[in-house]
């Protein structure tokens, strides 16, 4: 992702601030950033310390906003109150972006608070409701879970009232709370653990001017993803790859690490392979310095072929890194879309080129390109050069002095390029018009539901099961669908409901009029936020398809969503 693309997406993110005594027309958009400044933001992730990733990412993102764009910043976990569960303050008022002002505000952060997510979200919603804008949106950036006993997903569902909330969680694991907030408000959810993934997450979250507002959707339909992107591996097959690391040839280690990193590569993410130094002897400088070839054009389902081709390459020649990057850029220009390039090398440029300048020029040209580098058994000076190259390419350098570090570095780079960068976390459309129902405690008196309507419950269920039914023609087959849309819950002896960081689970069963379970009719709804499940329902002779929902040995949150469709 480039800064230009962020600017293009953010052109309409405006907040009109009327001058004293004047009535200004409403702006199209208002955007408020809510930044988690709790103590856990001091933890490290592969790309650095979380707080530094957030700080640098915000400054990069807003540095490229068009003149006149207004944005605001609210801190989550720092404020004037002595109560850590009421610690939130406005840090930058809505105004045109001034880097020094935002930098000063971020310099004043203590990074030692709790995580009053719900309190801060409510204050942010109040801020946005005062904004003179046609559409208002929020971006929450954080890493943790609510620490004050509230239900952030449930509150977002009940109180956002049409305000979309986008979320970015810092770290490699899923934050079910942040994902849930995005789910129930029709926002976007992304994970980030380095600068590359943060920039891609920011692109997902910053709204475009022509995006439609929240409308609700079938829970089985995923939201739109990123632009067409791909991963391109550039493998060093120069003569020096015959060198030894731990008694084994570097090329052998590189092949094994590449195979391991691509073992679980998503089949729907395009991947390709370029190599250099594989056709011409290192003794022929002139020919060797143009010896770079795209062996496999990026396409879905290519991972196994990348490994097969890499295994057939034998080190021979020079190290024309700059030329390889130039040709990779030309390929991307022709292909369109975006690319993450993973360069695996045991040395630096040997043909007089300037790879760092090439990488910087490619990004400055407007191409959506990110370059990660992996150094295999390199010297300190070579490691410094490869790190500078990755920095110029907007990516990360992974040092691999041995086989284990090579495997870890390459796997992390590939993961960065696929699970987070190229495949944003899909958040299905959420049905905003769900009707709340209680259900019956008796199958004979099952609550009748309407096909095609989305439902949630009027209250939490603690070790309870409720009965429902849908009318149809005898023998007709209907489908029960469900969506995970709530956090797991518990209840103390005093009757206080507690909310967990994990998602809720719900079970169901086809039943007859007497409440007896019918064979082959089990329903299990669990997984990440937005996960879905379904079960066939057969209409009985009395014109009703009956079913039971709940958990006899567990608890069901009132916000779980279900529907019966024909």
Write a compact overview of the structure shown.
The protein is of the alpha/beta class and 566 residues long.
Characterise the protein shown here.
Helix 2 packs antiparallel against helix 3 (99-107). It is built from 14 helices and 30 strands. Residues 1-22, 208-228 and 419-427 have low confidence and may be disordered. The protein has three domains: 3-205, Rossmann fold, CATH 3.40.50.410; 229-420, Rossmann fold, CATH 3.40.50.410; 435-565, Sandwich (Jelly Rolls), CATH 2.60.120.380. The strands form nine sheets. The protein has a six-stranded mixed sheet with strand order 5-4-1-6-7-8, with helices on both faces. With 566 residues, the chain is an alpha/beta fold.
Which terms would index this structure?
6-stranded mixed β-sheet; alpha/beta; Jelly Rolls; Rossmann fold; 27% helix; 14 helices; 566 residues
Number of beta-strand segments: 30
The side-by-side strand order for the widest beta sheet comes to: 5-4-1-6-7-8
Q: What class would the helix/strand composition place it in?
A: alpha/beta
CATH level-four homologous superfamily name of the largest domain: von Willebrand factor, type A domain
Radius of gyration: 27 Å
Basic shape: globular
Biggest beta sheet attributes: 6 strands, mixed
**In total, how many domains does the architecture comprise?**
3
**Average pLDDT level:** 85
Distance between the termini: 42 Å
């Amino acid at each position: 992702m480039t800064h230009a693309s962020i600017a293009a997406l953010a052109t309409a993110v405006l907040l009109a601030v009327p001058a004293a005594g004047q009535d200004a027309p409403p702006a199209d958009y208002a955007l408020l950033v809510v930044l988690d400044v709790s103590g856990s933001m001091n933890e490290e992730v592969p790309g650095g310390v979380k707080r530094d990733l957030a700080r640098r990412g915000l400054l990069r993102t807003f540095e490229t906003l068009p003149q006149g764009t207004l944005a605001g910043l609210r801190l989550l976990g720092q404020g004037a109150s002595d109560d850590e569960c009421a610690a939130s303050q406005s840090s930058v008022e809505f105004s045109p972006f001034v880097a020094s002002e935002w930098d000063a505000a971020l310099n004043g952060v203590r990074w030692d608070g709790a995580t009053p997510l719900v309190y801060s979200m409510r204050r942010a919603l109040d801020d946005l409701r005062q904004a003179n804008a046609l559409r208002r949106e929020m971006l929450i950036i954080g890493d943790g879970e609510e620490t004050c006993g509230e239900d952030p997903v449930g509150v977002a569902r009940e109180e956002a009232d049409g305000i979309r909330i986008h979320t970015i969680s810092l770290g490699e694991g899923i934050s079910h709370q942040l994902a849930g907030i995005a789910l129930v408000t029709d926002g976007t959810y992304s994970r980030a653990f380095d600068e590359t993934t943060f920039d891609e997450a920011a692109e997902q979250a910053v709204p475009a001017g022509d995006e439609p507002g929240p409308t609700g959707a079938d829970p089985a339909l995923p939201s739109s993803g990123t632009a067409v992107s791909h991963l391109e591996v550039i493998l060093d097959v120069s003569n020096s790859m015959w060198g030894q690391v731990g008694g084994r040839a570097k090329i052998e280690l590189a092949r094994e690490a590449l195979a391991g990193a691509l073992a679980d590569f998503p089949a729907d993410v395009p991947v390709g392979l370029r190599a250099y130094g594989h056709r011409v002897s290192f003794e022929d400088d002139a020919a060797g310095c143009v010896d770079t070839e795209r062996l496999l054009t990026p396409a879905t389902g290519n991972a196994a072929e990348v490994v097969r081709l890499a295994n057939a390459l034998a080190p021979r020649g020079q190290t024309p890194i700059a030329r390889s990057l130039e040709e990779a850029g030309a390929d991307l220009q022709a292909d369109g879309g975006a690319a993450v390039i993973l360069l695996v090398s045991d040395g630096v440029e040997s043909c007089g080129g300037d790879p760092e300048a090439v990488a910087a020029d490619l990004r400055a040209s407007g191409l959506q390109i990110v370059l990660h580098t992996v150094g295999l058994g390199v010297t300190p000076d070579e490691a410094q050069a490869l790190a500078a190259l990755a920095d110029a390419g907007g990516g990360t350098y992974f040092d691999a002095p041995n086989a284990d570090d090579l495997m870890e570095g390459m796997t992390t780079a590939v993961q960065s390029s696929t699970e987070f960068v190229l495949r944003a976390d899909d958040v299905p459309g959420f049905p905003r018009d769900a009707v709340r129902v209680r259900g019956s405690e008796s199958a004979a008196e099952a609550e009748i539901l309407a096909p095609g309507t989305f439902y949630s419950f009027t209250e939490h269920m603690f070790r309870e099961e409720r009965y429902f039914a849908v009318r149809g023609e005898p023998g007709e087959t209907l489908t029960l669908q469900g969506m995970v849309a709530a956090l797991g819950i518990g209840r103390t002896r005093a009757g206080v409901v507690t909310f967990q960081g994990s998602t809720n689970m719900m079970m169901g069963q086809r039943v007859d009029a007497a409440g007896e379970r019918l064979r082959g009719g089990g329903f299990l709804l669990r997984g990440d936020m937005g996960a879905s499940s379904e079960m066939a329902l057969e209409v009985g002779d009395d014109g009703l398809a009956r079913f039971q929902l709940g958990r006899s040995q567990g608890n069901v949150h009132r916000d779980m969503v279900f529907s019966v469709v024909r």
